[in-house]
Amino acid sequence: MWDLPHVPLGLKREWLGLETRRHFLGQGVKALGWAGLATLLGRSAPNLLANSPIPGAPAMVPHFAPKAKRAIYLFMAGSPSQFETWDHKPALADLFDQDLPESVRGGQTLTGMTASQTRFPIAPSLYKFARHGKAGRFVSELFPYTARVSDELCVIKSLHTDAINHEPAILQLTTGNMFPGRPSIGSWLSYGLGAMNEELPTFVVMTSKMPHRTNVQALSNRLWSSGFLSPEHAAVALRSGSDPVLYLNNPKGVESDVRRAMIDGVNDLNRQLFERVGDPEINARISQYEMAFRMQTSVPELADFSNEPQSTWDLYGPRAKEPGTFAYNCLMARRLAERGVRFTQIFLRSWDQHSRLPTNIKLMAEDSDQPTYALVTDLKRRGLLDDTVVIWGGEFGRTVYSQGTLTPENYGRDHHPRCFSMWMAGGGVKPGISYGETDDFSYNIVKDPMHIRDLHATILHLFGLDHSKLSFKFQGLDQKLTGVLPSKVVHDLLA
Amino acid sequence: MISWPNFRRAVPALAVLAAVVAARAEDTFYAQRVAPILEQKCVACHGEKKQKGKLRLDSFAHLMRGGEGGGVVQSGDAKDSELFIRVTLHPADEDFMPADSKPPLTPDEVKVLELWIAAGASATAPLSSIKGAPALAAPKAPVAALAPDWQPRSAQIARLEEELGVRLVARSHLPTDGLVLRTAGAPTRCDDAALAKLAPVADLIVEAELARTKITDAGLVWLATFSNLRALDLTRTRVTSAGLGSLASLGKLESLNLTSTGVDDAGVARLKDLPALRKTWVFDTRVTGVTADPAASAK
User: Fold this and answer.
1) Partners of A130 in the beta sheet?
2) B164 and B120, same structural domain?
3) Taking 60 as the threshold, does the pLDDT of residue A14 lie above it?
4) Are A387 and A352 in contact, with CB atoms under 8 Å apart?
5) Residues in chain A within 8 Å Cβ distance of B158
6) Which distant-in-sequence residues (6+ apart) come within 8 Å of B29 by Cβ?
7) CATH number of the domain that A442 lies in?
8) Which of A305, A452, B6, B19 could cysteine-pair with B69, CB 3.0–4.6 Å?
9) Residue A28 located in a structural domain
10) Is residue B142 part of a domain?
11) What confidence category does residue B164 fall into, taking pLDDT thresholds of 50, 70 and 90?
C-alpha cells in the first residue's frame, strides 16, 4: 500500500495500524495488551519512506541549513555543584556558616535528605577562581585544563528543571520528559536527520569508569532509548574493552560469507512476515541485522587506536589508552565524530556529593578535566569544532547551604533544581560568553532563565531542526522532544 | 464538520462577486496587506493543492467564492464574516483557523483583516485608502541562493548516488541551499574517477565531505568545476601542495580542511589568492608553525 501515490501519509499510517490490529485480533492474541498495541500502531511508518536515497525525503533533511552536524554530550551524572565549577559567588566567603535567609528559600520543597535539618548554613566554595582567556571568565581552580579553552565555551548559569531527584531529572535532560518511554535527544536527531555514515550507529552511548564511587546512580537504556520511535533510532552502547559491541564477532568457525547467507535468510523471512502483517517493527529488525553485519568491519577499525599520532596521547594524557576511562571515551568520541556519528553521549557518574564534597569533587575534576579540554582542543585543531557541538553538564544544581555538618574544610550539598550551570562549545554556539544570572546565593535565577526545554529547542536549532515541527504522532498527540509546554530557541547563544 | 458558524451564513456575500476593475494590483490594500497574510498562514490548506472545507484563499476571486458553507466574507461586517470569525475564536476551539495548531494570526494580522472587511472587502481599494492598519514588519532580506535548485535534476542525482556509492544530500528544505557530497559511509569508494563523474551536478554541491577518501592531486582538477563550493574537507587524503593549485578557481570556497594531508608551506602559500577563504586547517601536516593547542587562550 506504500505505493499508492495520492493517499496522504497520515491515512496510510492509519490503514497500517488497522491492518496490524485486525491481524492480531484475528489471530486471537488476547494476551496482547492495549498499551502494547498502541505502541505498534503508533510506530514509525514514515521511516519506511524516509530511507529513500533521494535528497529531500522529508523526514531526513534539516528544516533550514544547520550549523552543527554532530554533538558530543558529556553528561556529568549525579550533578556537579555549580558553586565549585561555573557559577562563581565570591561574596559568599563572608557569609560562611550564616543561615540562608528564609526570604531566599521562599518555602521551597526540599528533598527528604535535608528537610529535617534545623539549620541551613551557607557553605562557600572551598575552591578559588581566577580569570582566564581573552574574555576574562572566572574559572575554578578545579579545571586548570578546561580553563585554557575558556574562550571556546558558552557557559549557561540559568538552567532550571522540574525534577529534584536523579532519575526523573536525568530522564528529563536526556528525553525531555520525567517519565520513561520517550525518545532520547540522539534518537530524535536520528529520526529527523538520518545517518551520515550507514556503517556505524547514528547515536552512540558510552559510560565511563569512575575515579571513586559514592551515591552512584544506575544508568539504564531508558536514557538512550528510542521510546515510541522505531527501535533503530535507539543508541548503541559501546562497551569498554576489546569487544565494544557484544556478539558482533562471528562465532568461532563461522566464516563471514556463511554469516552473510544466514542474515540474508533471516531477513527474507522477516520481509515475508512484514508483507503479511505490516508491523513496522519487523523492518526495524531487518535494518538492525544489516547494521550489525556492517559494524563487523566498521567497529574494529573504529576501536583500533594504533594509528593515532603521538600528539593525541600528549593531548588526552596516558589514561586515554585505558579502555573505559573518561579520557578513552573522549578520544573515542572524536573518532566517532570524524566518522560521521551524529550524537555521542558519554556518561561520567559520581558527582552526587551530599557529603565530603571538597574531596570528591576534586577526584572527579582530576579525572575529567584534561580529557574535556583535550576533546575541545582536538576538535578545534582538526577543523571539527565548527560543526560539532560539545555539551557539558549534570541534571540539576546543588544547594548553597551545607547538607550535614559544615566545617571550614568539609561540607556537602543537596539537590537543587531551581538553577544550575552547563556549557556548550562549537557547532554554531557563541564562544566566550556567559548566559543568565543567579542571585547571590545561586538559589534563584535573576536573569534569563532557561528551561531544559529551551536547551533542547536550541540544540535542535543548531542541527537545522525546528523543535515545533520535529514531531511524531503517538497516542493522539504530535509528540515532540520539547513537549507541549512553551519552549524557545535561545538566540542569544547562537554565533 | 457542521459547526454553528455555518448556519449563520445562509446569505452568501454575493454582492462582492462584482467584476474587479483592475487598478494596479500591487498598489491595493488587498494585494499589499491581505493576500500576504492568507498566503503565509492559510494557503497551505486552502490553495491549489489542498482545498480544506472546499475553500481557496489564494486569490481574491477564490476568497469571494467561499467554501462549502458559502461565502466567508460579509462585506462591511467583519464580525459576521466566517473568515474573521474563524481566526478570532478561542485557539482551542475546534473551528479555530489556522487548524492543526499551525501558527495563528498575530493581533496585527487580525486587525488588518478586520479593517479590510469593514472598509468593504475590496480588491481595488488603494493601499492608502484604509487608515489605521498596523505597520508592516520590516521585510526580511531575501535569502541568497547558494546553488541552483537541485530538484529538476533529482533523477540524475539518485542515479549518481547509486552508481558512485556516494551520497548527495540536500542541505535543507530550501532547494537552493545546495547539496552536501557525503562519503562518510564508504570513503574508499570515492576516488578521482568518481569526482569526474559528478560533473553534471558539480554546480549543486555546496559542501564536499571528502575526508578519508582516495582523492589525490589528480582528482582535485575536477573540483575546479564545483563552482558553488563553500566547504571542502580533504582530511586524511593523499592530497599534497602540488594539487592545491587546482582549487584556484573556487571563488566561493570559505573553509578548507587539510588535516593529516601531505601539504606543506608551499601549498598554503598557493591558497592566498582564494578570495572567500576564511578558515584553513593544516594540523598534522608538514606546514610549519601550527599550534597543537589552538583553542588555548593567550596566557
Assistant:
1) A139
2) no
3) no
4) no
5) 53-54
6) B116, B119, B122, B125, B126, B127, B129, B130, B133
7) 3.40.720.10
8) B6
9) no
10) no
11) very high
Give residue A159's identity as a one-letter amino acid code. Answer: L
Comparing B101 with A280, the larger pLDDT belongs to: B101
Compute chain B's Rg from CA coordinates.
29
Location of C-alpha cell 458558524: B5
Which of B170, B185, B283 comes nearest A381 by C-beta?
B283
Query: Which range, of A36-40, A306-310, A311-315, A404-408, averages the lowest pLDDT?
Result: A36-40
Which chain B residue shows the shortest CA-CA distance from A384? B257
Which residue type, as a one-letter code, is found at position A279?
A: D
* Tens digit of each residue's pLDDT (9 = 90 or more) over B73-125: 998 999 999 999 999 988 778 899 998 878 888 888 999 999 999 999 998 88
Q: Which three cell numbers stand for residue A490?
A: 535561545
The answer to whether the CB of B223 falls within 8 A of the CB of B251 is no
| Interface residue ranges in chain B relative to chain A, Cβ cutoff 8 Å | 101, 150-151, 154, 157-158, 161-162, 167-175, 177, 179, 182, 184-186, 209, 211-212, 233, 235, 255, 257, 259, 279, 281, 283-284, 290-298
Cell of A97: 556558616
* Contacts (Cβ under 8 Å, ≥6 apart) of B160: B166, B168, B197, B198, B200, B201
Confidence (pTM)? 0.74
Q: How far apart are CA A32 and CA A34, in angstroms?
A: 7
Residues of A in contact with B212 (CB under 8 A): 338
Cell of A40: 505498534
Q: How many domains is chain B built from?
A: 2
